[in-house]
Amino acid sequence: MQKRFVVLFVLLITLKQFLWMVYMPLWHFPDEQAHFGQVQNIAEGLGSIFPSTFNTSREIAETEGFLGTFRDWGGNNLFTYHPEFNITYSQSKTGVYENLIRSFPKPWRTEMVIKEATVYPPLYYSLSAVFYSVFETQSIFERVMGVRILNLVFFLCTVYGAYLIAKLLFPKLIVLQMALVLLVSFHPMFSFLSAGINSYNIFNMTFTYMLYLCLLVLEKGLKPRYLLLMLLLLFLNIAGKSQGKLTPFIYLYPLVVSFIKYRDTRTLILLTGVVSFFVGIGAFLKSIFAGQQFLPDVARISGLTAAPELTLFGHVKNSIRQTMTQTVPWYFGVYRWLSMVSPPLVIKITNRVLIGAVLGLFVHIVMRMRARKTSHELVQIGFLAYASIVYYAGIIFYDYLFIKTHNFSLGIQGRYFFPTIVFHMALLLIGITSWIPVVRVRNLVAHVLGFGMVALHTFIFFWVHASYFDTSSFGIFFRQASQNKALWAKSPFLELYIGVFCILCVITLGVYINNQFHAQKKT
């Protein structure tokens, strides 16, 4: 790819993410107020864990009340399951309660009144607290926006990780590399989640690089520097999310394959594989039997007495059914506190593309196996599927333990699986294009998939924000979108941001088409 295009593309996706940050109302990213609560507790010197007491400040709770996102005992607020609801907007760029919220006294930041803040591993929240502190003297609107900005770094690094993976999976196939990057970077729900305050953002990044490292081991064997990086990413994954404890199980695949392929590193591979496996299995079983919090909110084995009628097999069957009917549609987009999913036509199109990808992938694998050649490509595809299945199984099993502890399910939302989104999109791309023998047709299909995702993202962005703000005129839209925001997220900056984005889209597309034209002339 030409440097000029790369620079334009990075600017484009950076501005695209920034648009989500400045246009989305306060507390409308998934559980943003809970994640911000843990950030605030660290930044204000209160620590991050309050095991038996309230852990969310009065400032956050009062703001939620005024803006309609305060949740009741069932976890629902005024927006939940009510796509028609909106708060009352004023006739100016200042929200009805905005000045009141800005005048909240500073002691409210450390006055704990409800228990809602997260108590997740500290890596994301400690880094976010630094950005919080930069805007410490300003209102909650500026502080939230300051923490949101940090997520740009995690998103861009994740997209770069997707590019590195694309180069390993599709060497010399520039069109397929670009298609995979577009599928990831313009995925609407992934873009939405990555713009808000959520610890998944740093976990998605570290997990992506862990998966890339595993592909490198499959490609080149286990080298000493890879071993050190594997241990580092294991630590970062666990420090980012509890799901990071699945990392040793994912390491097993490349370690076993590498052992079979490169006999000279047998001792190192066996030692690493055995240690990783038994650290994962042994620590899990020991802590569960001892009643320790190896996994949050899960009782020890003797305490798993809730929902006695639920068996593991029954739970797996229910989870697969839920995945087909709810998780997959939510994977591509669920907004406004679960009150709005993608339009039915979008769901139908994405479902048919997924079915086509699965069938194409199956045919491709069968044809390669019939040729009786264990190619490196099949080893790679096997790992893409293995890592995705292991992560999915881990989420399902945790939900089973949670139900057996608390007698209700956490639910299995599509966004829980974004740590493996690069592999999901790679499998989709392989399934759709790999069986097409004509290079030009395959490239055309890859272009349609990649730029189709760009079109879908653009539509979803405007569709979601049109549900919040009156679209009868540009003036009213931008006036309402300016309310209850940081000063740099108000009109006329909003018009400027989106204007520059549209111009950048046209320029970037033009440069890309020009590059493709010259590339075809050379061939």
Can you describe this structure in just a few lines?
With 523 residues, this protein is an all-alpha fold.
The N- and C-terminal alpha carbons lie at a distance of 16 Å
Question: How is the main sheet built?
Answer: 2 strands, antiparallel
Radius of gyration: 24 Å
Number of strands: 4
Lateral strand order in the biggest sheet: 1-2
Annotation field: number of helices: 19
Average the pLDDT over all residues and give the rounded result.
88
Tell me what portion of residues adopts beta-strand conformation: under 5%
Structural class computed from helices and strand pairing: mainly alpha
Outline the low-pLDDT stretches: none
> Helical proportion?
55-70%
Question: Would you mind describing this structure in some detail?
Answer:
- This protein has 19 helices and four strands.
- Helix 15 packs across helix 16 (421-433).
- The longest helix is centred in the last third of the chain and has 31 residues, at 376-406.
- 66% of the residues lie in helices and 2% in strands.
- It has 523 residues and is mainly alpha-helical.
- It is globular and about 70 Å long.
